[in-house]
Amino acid sequence: MKLSKFLFLLLFILSASVAFAQSSSELKRKKEAIQREIDLLQRNLKKTANNKKLTLSQINALNTKIKLMQDKITVINSEMKNLDNQIHENTNTVINLKGQLGQLKKEYAGMIRFAQRNKNAYDKMMFIFAAKDFNQAYKRIKYLQQFGQYRKKQAGYIQGTQKDLNYKIVILDKNLKEKSNLLHEQENEKDKLGKNKSEQAAVLNKYSKQEKQFRQDIATRKKQQAQIDRNIRAAIVREIELERKRAEEAARIAAAKAAKAAAAAAAAAAAKAKAENKPAPAAPVAVAKPKASSSGYLAATPEAAKLSAAFESNRGSLPWPVTSGSITESFGKHKEGQASYDNAGITIQTSEGAAVRAVFNGKVSKVGSALGRHYVLIKHGQFFTVYQNLRSVSVSAGDDVSTKQNIGTVATSGDMPELLFQIYRGAVAQNPASWIAK
């Protein structure tokens, strides 16, 4: 029973250690990813530190950086909570192992004293020969053998328990040092956060002085962006119209063939009925098929339907259109002071000259230019992805592209390297944040 309890305790310790290690490693990876985003935004902000004119990109970058710093502190708090749980478990384990070790040593000491009293071979022989019969004598021989083996096993248990105890004490010391390091890291992050909030207050003060100019800049941007979005939607509508015409032409040809076949069958049936002197059968009534939805025409062919289904099945796991970056402007309506604007996608701030890549297999539907920059529209069945604010483009309309294939490089917008990424189902804008991997 004692052995089984000991093994159960050891198994529990190992499973708890593995679970803690997995949770701890996940939190560390998350913290490192957040820090990479913070570093990227800090580099971009540093380049614009001397700019007298405040831009929306700067405000978004600073706000995002502060949010990421708060997220990092939250992750550190989670790490500390996990560590506290592990320290508590390890402390209890050390206490239990010490208790078990003491009990094992006490039992072993009793066995040693018994062995000392009966170490004389003559005494052992007398113990065996004092048996009432042969069967009892045999059992006494086996008892003496098993007693010796059990004593050896007990010595092994003591050594093993001592080893486990020493190991857990080392782990406990390591946990305590790690907690001390995390506390120090947390204090540093809180200090950095305080400085960045002061910087944010200074920016907001600067914004209040430049609010009129800032509102004008947003209005200009909104007007320009609205025009680009109209051009993209118009391109998507043209694609839908082309597919509609193709589908209707294919349906017309199929209907004509079916009508011809039906007429031939009806004529044959009428001739047979006439030969047999029977009344002619009634002509079949054509059943009108329901019309497809506008975006449904984009998935009218088996290939397009398969591509659409594949794209949709990857919702939440599509790769990012850049290898590193941070979402500084989310999907939907935004307001800065008295100025408001709408984002039909997400704005990703990345490194200067970063490569832009397709997020899924598809065909380039359009490559356009506006305000000295480029955009690429890629068709994935009834879905479209849009990559705006490109400095250069490496694909052309009609090209087939594969997942993660480079299609261009990002340009600097508002003194920051930013990519505007959009996803459409037909002509309806989707929130890309719910489609790309977390």
What can you see in these coordinates?
The chain has about 450 residues and is α+β, with helices and mostly antiparallel strands. It has two domains: about 1-210, no CATH class; about 325-435, Glucose Permease (Domain IIA), CATH 2.70.70. The chain is built from six helices and 13 strands. The chain has helices spanning about 1-45, 55-115, 120-130, 135-210, 210-275, 300-315; strands at about 325-330, 330-335, 340-345, 345-350, 355, 360-370, 375-380, 385-395, 400, 405-410, 410-415, 415-425, 430. Strands 1, 4, 5, 6, 7, 8, 9, 10, 11, 12 and 13 form an eleven-stranded antiparallel beta sheet that branches. A two-stranded antiparallel sheet has the order 2-3. A hairpin with a 2-residue loop joins β6 (about 360-370) and β7. α1 (about 1-45) packs antiparallel against α2 (about 55-115) and α2 (about 55-115) runs antiparallel to α4. The longest helix has about 80 residues, at about 135-210.
